[in-house]
Design a protein that fits this description.
Length: 131
C-alpha cells in the first residue's frame, strides 16, 4: 500500500458576516450560561515543595526530605511509592497526585510538605494548591 495522494483544494474565503454572527451567538451563549460551582483549593499553612518533571522526581523528593530533616524540620512527602512522614512510610501506594496532597498537608506537626507531582495528575485533576 502506498501513501494516499490528496489533491489540494482551495477553501473559500470565510464570509465576514457569517463569522461575526457565529461569534456573537457563541458569546451570548457563554454570557447567559449558569455559573458553575466555585472551585476551592487547599491553602497550606506550611511551605510546600512540588516536584515535577520527566525523570528524577522521586530522587529529588527524597533528597529534599533528607536535607529538610537534616536541618531539623518535620517533613512529610508523597510520591509514587506512598506517603512518608519523618522517614516512615505512612501509607504505601501511588500518591503522586491530588490524593497525596490530601494525605500530606493535614499531617500534624509537619513543617515542610514535599509533593511528587506527576504530569498526569496535573493534567487530569490539577494539583489544587494555592501558593
Amino acid at each position: 500500500m502506498g501513501l494516499a495522494r490528496w489533491r489540494s483544494v482551495a477553501l473559500p474565503d470565510p464570509d465576514e458576516a457569517v463569522r461575526e454572527e457565529a461569534l456573537g451567538t457563541a458569546f451570548t451563549a457563554v454570557v447567559q450560561a449558569e455559573q458553575g460551582a466555585h472551585y476551592t483549593m487547599m491553602k497550606p499553612k506550611i511551605p510546600v515543595a512540588s516536584v515535577t518533571g520527566t525523570n528524577g522526581r522521586m530522587t529529588t523528593t527524597r533528597l529534599l526530605e533528607h536535607v529538610a530533616m537534616t536541618a531539623g524540620l518535620v517533613t512529610a512527602w508523597s510520591a509514587t511509592d506512598g506517603v512518608v512522614a519523618q522517614g516512615v512510610m505512612v501509607e504505601p501506594g501511588d500518591y503522586s497526585g491530588t490524593a497525596g496532597v490530601r494525605k500530606v498537608l493535614p499531617t500534624s506537626r509537619v513543617q515542610l510538605a514535599i509533593l511528587e507531582t506527576a504530569r498526569g495528575g496535573l493534567l487530569l485533576n490539577t494539583i489544587g494548591i494555592w501558593m
